[in-house]
Specification:
495 residues, alpha/beta, Rossmann fold, 3 domains, 7-stranded mixed sheet, two-stranded antiparallel sheet, 16 helices, 46% helix, phosphotransferase activity, for other substituted phosphate groups, EPS_sugar_tfrase
Protein backbone atom coordinates (compact mmCIF):
# COMPACT_ATOMS: atom_id res chain seq x y z
CA UNK A 1 0.00 0.00 0.00
CA UNK A 2 1.49 3.30 -1.01
CA UNK A 3 1.80 6.68 0.60
CA UNK A 4 0.39 9.96 -0.64
CA UNK A 5 3.63 10.69 -2.14
CA UNK A 6 6.37 13.32 -1.39
CA UNK A 7 10.38 13.09 -1.19
CA UNK A 8 13.04 11.78 -3.56
CA UNK A 9 12.42 8.31 -4.96
CA UNK A 10 13.46 5.39 -2.72
CA UNK A 11 15.50 2.32 -3.40
CA UNK A 12 19.00 3.71 -3.83
CA UNK A 13 20.82 4.29 -7.10
CA UNK A 14 19.50 2.29 -10.05
CA UNK A 15 21.72 -0.07 -11.96
CA UNK A 16 22.66 0.58 -15.56
CA UNK A 17 21.45 -2.13 -17.93
CA UNK A 18 22.49 -0.70 -21.25
CA UNK A 19 19.05 -0.22 -22.79
CA UNK A 20 16.20 2.24 -22.67
CA UNK A 21 12.96 0.75 -21.32
CA UNK A 22 9.69 1.59 -23.02
CA UNK A 23 7.10 3.30 -20.84
CA UNK A 24 3.65 1.80 -20.72
CA UNK A 25 1.94 5.17 -20.32
CA UNK A 26 0.04 5.98 -23.52
CA UNK A 27 0.79 9.34 -25.04
CA UNK A 28 -2.35 11.44 -24.90
CA UNK A 29 -3.71 11.85 -28.37
CA UNK A 30 -0.99 9.74 -29.98
CA UNK A 31 -0.65 6.12 -30.92
CA UNK A 32 1.21 3.82 -28.56
CA UNK A 33 4.62 2.57 -29.61
CA UNK A 34 4.26 -0.57 -31.69
CA UNK A 35 0.47 -0.92 -31.54
CA UNK A 36 -1.15 -1.88 -34.83
CA UNK A 37 -4.64 -2.89 -35.96
CA UNK A 38 -5.28 -6.52 -35.07
CA UNK A 39 -8.86 -7.10 -36.10
CA UNK A 40 -8.21 -10.27 -38.11
CA UNK A 41 -5.65 -13.04 -37.81
CA UNK A 42 -2.67 -12.43 -40.04
CA UNK A 43 -1.54 -16.05 -39.93
CA UNK A 44 -3.51 -19.22 -39.30
CA UNK A 45 -2.29 -20.66 -35.98
CA UNK A 46 -1.52 -24.32 -35.72
CA UNK A 47 -3.28 -26.47 -33.15
CA UNK A 48 -0.70 -28.96 -31.80
CA UNK A 49 -3.12 -30.09 -29.11
CA UNK A 50 -5.57 -31.79 -31.49
CA UNK A 51 -3.33 -34.72 -32.64
CA UNK A 52 -2.27 -35.26 -29.03
CA UNK A 53 -5.91 -35.33 -27.94
CA UNK A 54 -6.67 -37.93 -30.62
CA UNK A 55 -3.65 -40.03 -29.56
CA UNK A 56 -4.68 -40.00 -25.89
CA UNK A 57 -8.35 -40.68 -26.61
CA UNK A 58 -7.55 -43.48 -29.06
CA UNK A 59 -5.25 -45.18 -26.56
CA UNK A 60 -7.91 -45.04 -23.84
CA UNK A 61 -10.60 -46.46 -26.14
CA UNK A 62 -8.31 -49.21 -27.42
CA UNK A 63 -7.30 -50.28 -23.93
CA UNK A 64 -10.89 -50.20 -22.66
CA UNK A 65 -12.35 -52.13 -25.62
CA UNK A 66 -9.59 -54.76 -25.36
CA UNK A 67 -10.63 -55.75 -21.85
CA UNK A 68 -13.91 -57.66 -21.46
CA UNK A 69 -14.62 -56.33 -17.97
CA UNK A 70 -14.59 -52.73 -19.21
CA UNK A 71 -16.20 -53.51 -22.56
CA UNK A 72 -19.28 -54.96 -20.84
CA UNK A 73 -19.85 -51.69 -18.94
CA UNK A 74 -19.92 -48.67 -21.30
CA UNK A 75 -20.10 -46.12 -18.43
CA UNK A 76 -16.67 -47.35 -17.26
CA UNK A 77 -15.27 -46.78 -20.74
CA UNK A 78 -16.68 -43.24 -20.86
CA UNK A 79 -15.30 -42.51 -17.38
CA UNK A 80 -11.89 -43.82 -18.43
CA UNK A 81 -11.81 -41.60 -21.51
CA UNK A 82 -13.06 -38.42 -19.86
CA UNK A 83 -10.94 -38.91 -16.74
CA UNK A 84 -7.71 -39.30 -18.71
CA UNK A 85 -8.40 -36.30 -20.97
CA UNK A 86 -9.28 -34.15 -17.96
CA UNK A 87 -6.07 -35.09 -16.12
CA UNK A 88 -3.94 -34.46 -19.19
CA UNK A 89 -5.59 -31.10 -19.83
CA UNK A 90 -5.09 -30.08 -16.20
CA UNK A 91 -1.42 -31.06 -16.45
CA UNK A 92 -0.97 -28.96 -19.63
CA UNK A 93 -0.03 -32.04 -21.66
CA UNK A 94 -1.76 -30.50 -24.67
CA UNK A 95 0.60 -27.53 -24.65
CA UNK A 96 3.81 -29.18 -25.80
CA UNK A 97 7.23 -27.57 -25.53
CA UNK A 98 8.97 -25.96 -28.49
CA UNK A 99 10.66 -29.19 -29.64
CA UNK A 100 8.72 -32.00 -27.94
CA UNK A 101 9.89 -35.59 -27.59
CA UNK A 102 8.12 -38.73 -26.38
CA UNK A 103 10.61 -39.13 -23.53
CA UNK A 104 9.55 -35.76 -22.13
CA UNK A 105 5.95 -36.98 -21.95
CA UNK A 106 6.66 -40.49 -20.67
CA UNK A 107 6.54 -39.95 -16.86
CA UNK A 108 3.55 -37.61 -16.94
CA UNK A 109 1.51 -39.73 -19.37
CA UNK A 110 2.15 -43.04 -17.60
CA UNK A 111 1.48 -41.52 -14.19
CA UNK A 112 -1.87 -40.15 -15.28
CA UNK A 113 -2.84 -43.45 -16.92
CA UNK A 114 -2.18 -45.30 -13.66
CA UNK A 115 -4.11 -42.72 -11.63
CA UNK A 116 -7.07 -42.91 -14.02
CA UNK A 117 -7.27 -46.69 -13.91
CA UNK A 118 -6.96 -46.77 -10.10
CA UNK A 119 -9.74 -44.21 -9.79
CA UNK A 120 -11.83 -46.23 -12.24
CA UNK A 121 -11.30 -49.41 -10.20
CA UNK A 122 -12.28 -47.64 -6.97
CA UNK A 123 -15.36 -46.13 -8.60
CA UNK A 124 -16.55 -49.43 -10.04
CA UNK A 125 -16.04 -51.22 -6.73
CA UNK A 126 -17.98 -48.54 -4.83
CA UNK A 127 -20.93 -48.32 -7.23
CA UNK A 128 -21.21 -51.95 -8.27
CA UNK A 129 -19.14 -54.51 -6.34
CA UNK A 130 -20.05 -57.16 -8.89
CA UNK A 131 -18.43 -55.14 -11.66
CA UNK A 132 -15.23 -54.37 -9.72
CA UNK A 133 -12.09 -54.59 -11.84
CA UNK A 134 -9.72 -57.42 -11.03
CA UNK A 135 -6.03 -56.82 -10.33
CA UNK A 136 -5.11 -58.48 -13.64
CA UNK A 137 -7.48 -56.24 -15.60
CA UNK A 138 -6.06 -53.19 -13.83
CA UNK A 139 -2.44 -54.14 -14.59
CA UNK A 140 -3.10 -55.06 -18.22
CA UNK A 141 -5.15 -51.90 -18.79
CA UNK A 142 -2.43 -49.65 -17.39
CA UNK A 143 0.36 -51.34 -19.36
CA UNK A 144 -1.56 -51.49 -22.65
CA UNK A 145 -2.83 -47.92 -22.51
CA UNK A 146 0.57 -46.53 -21.48
CA UNK A 147 2.33 -48.29 -24.35
CA UNK A 148 -0.20 -47.24 -26.99
CA UNK A 149 -0.43 -43.72 -25.62
CA UNK A 150 3.33 -43.16 -25.62
CA UNK A 151 3.65 -44.65 -29.10
CA UNK A 152 0.91 -42.37 -30.42
CA UNK A 153 2.45 -39.29 -28.86
CA UNK A 154 5.88 -40.27 -30.21
CA UNK A 155 4.45 -40.38 -33.71
CA UNK A 156 2.75 -36.98 -33.26
CA UNK A 157 5.93 -35.37 -31.94
CA UNK A 158 8.08 -36.90 -34.69
CA UNK A 159 5.78 -35.51 -37.38
CA UNK A 160 5.79 -32.10 -35.73
CA UNK A 161 9.59 -31.99 -35.45
CA UNK A 162 9.93 -33.04 -39.08
CA UNK A 163 7.47 -30.36 -40.19
CA UNK A 164 9.35 -27.71 -38.20
CA UNK A 165 12.65 -28.63 -39.85
CA UNK A 166 11.20 -28.72 -43.36
CA UNK A 167 8.99 -25.65 -42.93
CA UNK A 168 10.32 -23.51 -40.07
CA UNK A 169 8.05 -20.84 -38.67
CA UNK A 170 8.90 -17.27 -39.62
CA UNK A 171 9.73 -15.50 -36.36
CA UNK A 172 10.15 -11.98 -34.98
CA UNK A 173 12.54 -11.22 -32.11
CA UNK A 174 11.47 -8.48 -29.68
CA UNK A 175 13.90 -6.73 -27.35
CA UNK A 176 16.96 -4.47 -27.20
CA UNK A 177 18.45 -4.40 -30.71
CA UNK A 178 21.89 -5.76 -29.82
CA UNK A 179 20.61 -8.65 -27.70
CA UNK A 180 17.82 -9.46 -30.15
CA UNK A 181 20.27 -9.62 -33.08
CA UNK A 182 22.50 -11.98 -31.09
CA UNK A 183 19.57 -14.27 -30.26
CA UNK A 184 18.36 -14.19 -33.88
CA UNK A 185 21.81 -15.15 -35.16
CA UNK A 186 21.90 -18.12 -32.76
CA UNK A 187 18.54 -19.37 -34.04
CA UNK A 188 19.64 -18.99 -37.65
CA UNK A 189 22.68 -21.15 -36.86
CA UNK A 190 20.38 -23.87 -35.46
CA UNK A 191 17.62 -24.46 -38.05
CA UNK A 192 16.51 -27.66 -36.28
CA UNK A 193 14.75 -25.41 -33.75
CA UNK A 194 12.03 -24.89 -36.34
CA UNK A 195 12.12 -21.09 -36.00
CA UNK A 196 13.54 -18.76 -38.66
CA UNK A 197 13.96 -15.15 -37.47
CA UNK A 198 13.04 -12.63 -40.18
CA UNK A 199 13.21 -9.37 -38.23
CA UNK A 200 13.94 -7.63 -34.94
CA UNK A 201 11.43 -5.38 -33.17
CA UNK A 202 13.15 -2.74 -31.07
CA UNK A 203 12.54 0.81 -29.90
CA UNK A 204 15.89 1.89 -31.34
CA UNK A 205 17.86 0.83 -34.39
CA UNK A 206 21.40 -0.51 -34.04
CA UNK A 207 24.22 -0.21 -36.52
CA UNK A 208 26.00 -3.16 -38.11
CA UNK A 209 24.84 -6.22 -39.93
CA UNK A 210 21.90 -8.37 -39.03
CA UNK A 211 18.19 -8.68 -39.59
CA UNK A 212 16.01 -5.67 -40.38
CA UNK A 213 15.07 -3.65 -37.29
CA UNK A 214 11.36 -2.76 -37.10
CA UNK A 215 10.61 0.36 -35.08
CA UNK A 216 6.98 1.18 -35.95
CA UNK A 217 3.66 -0.63 -35.86
CA UNK A 218 3.30 -0.34 -39.62
CA UNK A 219 6.64 -2.09 -40.18
CA UNK A 220 5.67 -4.89 -37.79
CA UNK A 221 2.32 -5.39 -39.49
CA UNK A 222 3.97 -5.44 -42.93
CA UNK A 223 6.53 -8.03 -41.76
CA UNK A 224 3.75 -10.21 -40.31
CA UNK A 225 1.81 -10.24 -43.57
CA UNK A 226 4.73 -10.62 -45.98
CA UNK A 227 6.50 -13.38 -44.04
CA UNK A 228 3.45 -15.16 -42.53
CA UNK A 229 4.99 -14.85 -39.08
CA UNK A 230 3.79 -17.57 -36.70
CA UNK A 231 6.11 -17.19 -33.69
CA UNK A 232 7.60 -14.39 -31.60
CA UNK A 233 10.66 -14.54 -29.34
CA UNK A 234 10.67 -12.01 -26.50
CA UNK A 235 14.14 -11.22 -25.15
CA UNK A 236 14.75 -9.51 -21.81
CA UNK A 237 13.41 -7.21 -20.56
CA UNK A 238 10.04 -8.88 -20.88
CA UNK A 239 6.56 -7.51 -20.41
CA UNK A 240 7.37 -3.99 -21.66
CA UNK A 241 5.53 -4.42 -24.97
CA UNK A 242 2.11 -5.38 -23.61
CA UNK A 243 -0.09 -3.93 -26.39
CA UNK A 244 2.21 -5.30 -29.09
CA UNK A 245 2.29 -8.81 -27.59
CA UNK A 246 -1.48 -8.90 -27.25
CA UNK A 247 -1.88 -7.81 -30.88
CA UNK A 248 0.60 -10.47 -32.04
CA UNK A 249 -1.18 -13.13 -29.99
CA UNK A 250 -4.54 -12.11 -31.48
CA UNK A 251 -2.92 -12.33 -34.94
CA UNK A 252 -2.21 -16.02 -34.30
CA UNK A 253 1.45 -15.87 -33.20
CA UNK A 254 2.89 -18.17 -30.53
CA UNK A 255 4.87 -16.14 -27.99
CA UNK A 256 8.04 -17.44 -26.32
CA UNK A 257 10.09 -15.70 -23.68
CA UNK A 258 13.80 -16.37 -24.25
CA UNK A 259 16.27 -15.79 -21.42
CA UNK A 260 19.31 -14.61 -23.34
CA UNK A 261 21.67 -14.10 -20.40
CA UNK A 262 20.68 -15.75 -17.11
CA UNK A 263 21.47 -19.42 -16.37
CA UNK A 264 18.43 -21.61 -16.86
CA UNK A 265 18.77 -22.97 -13.33
CA UNK A 266 18.45 -19.54 -11.75
CA UNK A 267 15.20 -18.95 -9.87
CA UNK A 268 14.14 -15.29 -9.69
CA UNK A 269 14.27 -13.83 -6.20
CA UNK A 270 10.82 -13.79 -4.72
CA UNK A 271 9.41 -16.58 -6.88
CA UNK A 272 7.44 -19.26 -5.05
CA UNK A 273 9.47 -22.22 -3.90
CA UNK A 274 9.03 -25.53 -5.64
CA UNK A 275 8.54 -24.05 -9.11
CA UNK A 276 11.30 -24.48 -11.63
CA UNK A 277 12.26 -22.06 -14.37
CA UNK A 278 14.86 -24.22 -16.08
CA UNK A 279 14.85 -26.44 -19.13
CA UNK A 280 12.86 -29.09 -17.31
CA UNK A 281 10.34 -26.75 -15.74
CA UNK A 282 6.67 -27.51 -15.35
CA UNK A 283 4.47 -28.47 -18.26
CA UNK A 284 2.01 -25.79 -17.35
CA UNK A 285 4.61 -23.20 -18.16
CA UNK A 286 5.25 -24.75 -21.58
CA UNK A 287 8.99 -24.46 -21.09
CA UNK A 288 11.99 -25.97 -22.81
CA UNK A 289 15.20 -25.10 -24.62
CA UNK A 290 15.70 -23.54 -28.03
CA UNK A 291 19.15 -23.02 -29.58
CA UNK A 292 20.60 -23.49 -26.09
CA UNK A 293 18.44 -20.76 -24.55
CA UNK A 294 15.96 -21.42 -21.76
CA UNK A 295 12.51 -20.47 -23.02
CA UNK A 296 8.98 -20.36 -21.68
CA UNK A 297 5.60 -19.97 -23.35
CA UNK A 298 3.93 -16.58 -22.81
CA UNK A 299 0.17 -16.48 -22.40
CA UNK A 300 -1.06 -12.89 -22.64
CA UNK A 301 -4.78 -13.73 -22.79
CA UNK A 302 -5.82 -15.54 -19.61
CA UNK A 303 -9.56 -15.18 -20.07
CA UNK A 304 -10.35 -17.93 -17.56
CA UNK A 305 -7.91 -16.51 -15.02
CA UNK A 306 -9.27 -12.98 -15.46
CA UNK A 307 -12.81 -14.22 -14.93
CA UNK A 308 -11.91 -16.09 -11.74
CA UNK A 309 -9.95 -13.14 -10.42
CA UNK A 310 -12.78 -10.73 -11.21
CA UNK A 311 -15.36 -12.96 -9.51
CA UNK A 312 -13.15 -13.11 -6.41
CA UNK A 313 -12.75 -9.32 -6.47
CA UNK A 314 -16.48 -8.65 -6.76
CA UNK A 315 -17.44 -11.18 -4.10
CA UNK A 316 -14.86 -10.13 -1.52
CA UNK A 317 -15.01 -6.37 -2.10
CA UNK A 318 -18.82 -6.37 -2.08
CA UNK A 319 -18.96 -8.37 1.16
CA UNK A 320 -16.30 -6.20 2.82
CA UNK A 321 -18.05 -2.98 1.84
CA UNK A 322 -21.24 -4.25 3.49
CA UNK A 323 -19.35 -5.25 6.64
CA UNK A 324 -17.15 -2.15 7.01
CA UNK A 325 -19.69 0.47 5.87
CA UNK A 326 -20.33 1.58 9.51
CA UNK A 327 -16.55 1.89 9.99
CA UNK A 328 -16.25 3.96 6.79
CA UNK A 329 -18.96 6.30 8.08
CA UNK A 330 -17.22 6.69 11.45
CA UNK A 331 -13.87 7.45 9.75
CA UNK A 332 -15.49 10.01 7.45
CA UNK A 333 -17.23 11.81 10.37
CA UNK A 334 -14.07 11.78 12.51
CA UNK A 335 -11.98 13.17 9.64
CA UNK A 336 -14.56 15.90 8.97
CA UNK A 337 -14.55 16.97 12.62
CA UNK A 338 -10.75 16.84 13.07
CA UNK A 339 -9.48 18.09 9.69
CA UNK A 340 -12.37 19.97 8.12
CA UNK A 341 -14.04 19.45 4.74
CA UNK A 342 -12.60 17.34 1.96
CA UNK A 343 -12.72 13.87 3.50
CA UNK A 344 -12.18 11.85 0.32
CA UNK A 345 -8.81 12.03 -1.46
CA UNK A 346 -8.92 11.54 -5.25
CA UNK A 347 -5.79 11.10 -7.33
CA UNK A 348 -4.94 9.90 -10.83
CA UNK A 349 -3.07 6.60 -10.84
CA UNK A 350 -1.89 4.31 -13.63
CA UNK A 351 -3.56 0.92 -13.94
CA UNK A 352 -3.41 -2.06 -16.27
CA UNK A 353 -1.85 -1.39 -19.70
CA UNK A 354 -1.01 2.17 -18.68
CA UNK A 355 -4.64 3.30 -18.44
CA UNK A 356 -5.22 6.10 -15.88
CA UNK A 357 -7.99 5.90 -13.27
CA UNK A 358 -9.05 7.85 -10.19
CA UNK A 359 -7.97 6.24 -6.92
CA UNK A 360 -10.01 6.86 -3.76
CA UNK A 361 -8.62 7.16 -0.24
CA UNK A 362 -9.47 8.95 2.98
CA UNK A 363 -7.55 12.23 3.05
CA UNK A 364 -4.85 12.12 5.74
CA UNK A 365 -2.59 14.88 4.35
CA UNK A 366 -3.19 18.14 2.50
CA UNK A 367 -0.46 18.96 -0.03
CA UNK A 368 0.40 22.57 -0.75
CA UNK A 369 -0.73 22.37 -4.38
CA UNK A 370 -1.48 19.92 -7.21
CA UNK A 371 2.18 19.81 -8.30
CA UNK A 372 3.29 18.70 -4.83
CA UNK A 373 0.55 16.07 -4.72
CA UNK A 374 1.71 14.64 -8.06
CA UNK A 375 5.50 14.73 -7.58
CA UNK A 376 6.38 14.35 -3.88
CA UNK A 377 7.10 10.83 -2.67
CA UNK A 378 6.35 10.12 0.99
CA UNK A 379 4.51 11.90 3.77
CA UNK A 380 4.65 9.08 6.31
CA UNK A 381 6.74 11.23 8.69
CA UNK A 382 4.94 14.57 8.25
CA UNK A 383 4.49 16.15 11.70
CA UNK A 384 1.51 18.31 10.78
CA UNK A 385 -0.76 15.29 10.43
CA UNK A 386 -3.28 14.89 13.22
CA UNK A 387 -3.17 11.93 15.58
CA UNK A 388 -6.25 10.43 13.97
CA UNK A 389 -4.68 10.69 10.50
CA UNK A 390 -1.52 9.02 11.80
CA UNK A 391 -3.70 6.25 13.25
CA UNK A 392 -5.54 5.76 9.96
CA UNK A 393 -2.30 5.53 7.98
CA UNK A 394 -0.68 3.18 10.52
CA UNK A 395 -3.67 0.82 10.41
CA UNK A 396 -4.27 1.28 6.64
CA UNK A 397 -7.84 2.41 7.29
CA UNK A 398 -7.30 5.20 4.75
CA UNK A 399 -7.06 2.51 2.04
CA UNK A 400 -10.53 1.05 2.64
CA UNK A 401 -12.23 3.30 0.09
CA UNK A 402 -10.24 1.51 -2.61
CA UNK A 403 -12.71 -1.33 -2.22
CA UNK A 404 -14.96 0.87 -4.41
CA UNK A 405 -12.20 0.95 -7.04
CA UNK A 406 -12.13 -2.85 -6.91
CA UNK A 407 -15.90 -3.17 -7.18
CA UNK A 408 -15.96 -0.79 -10.17
CA UNK A 409 -13.19 -2.71 -11.92
CA UNK A 410 -10.45 -0.04 -11.81
CA UNK A 411 -8.37 -2.21 -9.46
CA UNK A 412 -8.13 -5.75 -8.11
CA UNK A 413 -7.79 -6.91 -4.53
CA UNK A 414 -4.34 -8.35 -5.31
CA UNK A 415 -1.84 -6.93 -7.76
CA UNK A 416 1.00 -4.42 -8.11
CA UNK A 417 0.29 -1.17 -6.28
CA UNK A 418 -0.73 1.68 -8.63
CA UNK A 419 1.42 4.79 -8.81
CA UNK A 420 1.00 8.32 -10.20
CA UNK A 421 1.85 9.11 -13.83
CA UNK A 422 4.91 11.19 -12.86
CA UNK A 423 6.54 8.32 -10.99
CA UNK A 424 5.46 5.64 -13.47
CA UNK A 425 7.22 7.56 -16.25
CA UNK A 426 10.28 8.13 -14.07
CA UNK A 427 10.58 4.58 -12.75
CA UNK A 428 9.90 3.03 -16.17
CA UNK A 429 12.98 4.83 -17.50
CA UNK A 430 15.13 4.04 -14.44
CA UNK A 431 14.26 0.55 -13.24
CA UNK A 432 14.18 -2.39 -15.71
CA UNK A 433 10.94 -4.31 -15.35
CA UNK A 434 8.90 -1.50 -13.78
CA UNK A 435 6.73 -1.03 -16.86
CA UNK A 436 6.13 -4.80 -16.94
CA UNK A 437 4.13 -4.52 -13.70
CA UNK A 438 1.26 -3.04 -15.73
CA UNK A 439 0.55 -6.33 -17.49
CA UNK A 440 -1.96 -7.09 -14.74
CA UNK A 441 -4.62 -5.11 -12.93
CA UNK A 442 -3.20 -3.07 -10.05
CA UNK A 443 -4.28 -4.02 -6.55
CA UNK A 444 -4.81 -2.94 -2.95
CA UNK A 445 -2.21 -5.42 -1.74
CA UNK A 446 0.28 -7.73 -3.40
CA UNK A 447 3.26 -10.04 -3.08
CA UNK A 448 5.60 -7.07 -2.55
CA UNK A 449 3.45 -5.63 0.24
CA UNK A 450 3.26 -8.83 2.28
CA UNK A 451 7.08 -8.96 2.11
CA UNK A 452 7.32 -5.53 3.73
CA UNK A 453 7.82 -3.47 0.56
CA UNK A 454 5.51 -0.59 1.43
CA UNK A 455 6.04 3.16 1.58
CA UNK A 456 9.67 4.31 1.35
CA UNK A 457 11.21 1.00 0.23
CA UNK A 458 13.21 -0.25 -2.75
CA UNK A 459 11.47 0.23 -6.10
CA UNK A 460 13.77 -2.37 -7.66
CA UNK A 461 12.68 -4.95 -5.09
CA UNK A 462 9.03 -4.13 -5.70
CA UNK A 463 9.50 -4.68 -9.44
CA UNK A 464 11.01 -8.08 -8.80
CA UNK A 465 8.25 -9.24 -6.46
CA UNK A 466 5.45 -7.79 -8.60
CA UNK A 467 6.72 -9.42 -11.80
CA UNK A 468 7.26 -12.73 -9.98
CA UNK A 469 3.62 -12.56 -8.84
CA UNK A 470 2.37 -11.91 -12.38
CA UNK A 471 4.56 -14.61 -13.95
CA UNK A 472 3.26 -17.23 -11.50
CA UNK A 473 -0.27 -16.01 -10.96
CA UNK A 474 -2.92 -18.35 -9.64
CA UNK A 475 -6.22 -17.80 -7.88
CA UNK A 476 -4.92 -19.68 -4.84
CA UNK A 477 -1.93 -17.34 -4.66
CA UNK A 478 -4.37 -14.41 -4.50
CA UNK A 479 -6.23 -16.07 -1.63
CA UNK A 480 -2.96 -16.67 0.25
CA UNK A 481 -1.87 -13.04 -0.21
CA UNK A 482 -5.25 -11.80 1.06
CA UNK A 483 -4.97 -14.02 4.15
CA UNK A 484 -1.41 -12.84 4.86
CA UNK A 485 -2.52 -9.23 4.39
CA UNK A 486 -5.35 -9.72 6.87
CA UNK A 487 -2.88 -11.22 9.36
CA UNK A 488 -0.46 -8.31 8.91
CA UNK A 489 -3.20 -5.80 9.81
CA UNK A 490 -3.08 -7.20 13.35
CA UNK A 491 0.47 -5.85 13.65
CA UNK A 492 0.32 -2.69 11.50
CA UNK A 493 3.58 -1.04 10.44
CA UNK A 494 2.22 1.93 8.48
CA UNK A 495 2.18 2.65 4.78
Amino acid sequence: MTAESTVPSPGGEPREYGFSPVSVIPSRGAADGFRFPAGQRLSAPRAPWLPLLVADGGAALLAGLSLAQVQRHPPLLVALLLGLLALNAHGALYRPGPIPTALDDLPAVCGRVVVTWCALAALSAALSPGAALSARTLAVGCALQSAVNCAGRALVHWRRRRALVLRPDATLVIGPAGTAQRVAAAFLRHPRCGLRPVGVVSAQTAGGEGLPVLTTGEEVQRALIQNSVRAVLVVEPRGEHGPLLRALSEAGCVLWHVDADSPSQEIPYGAPRGRSYGAASGRAAGSGRLAGFSCRRINVSRAHGNLGKRLLDVAVSGALLLVVSPLLLVCAVALRLSDGPGVVFRQERIGKDGRPFTLLKFRTHRPVDAHEAATRWSVAGEREMSRFCHFMRRTSLDELLQLWNVLWGDMSLVGPRPERPYFVAKFSQTYPGYAARHRMQTGITGLAQIHGLRGDTSIEDRCRFDNAYIDNWSLWQDVCILLRTAASLVRPTGS
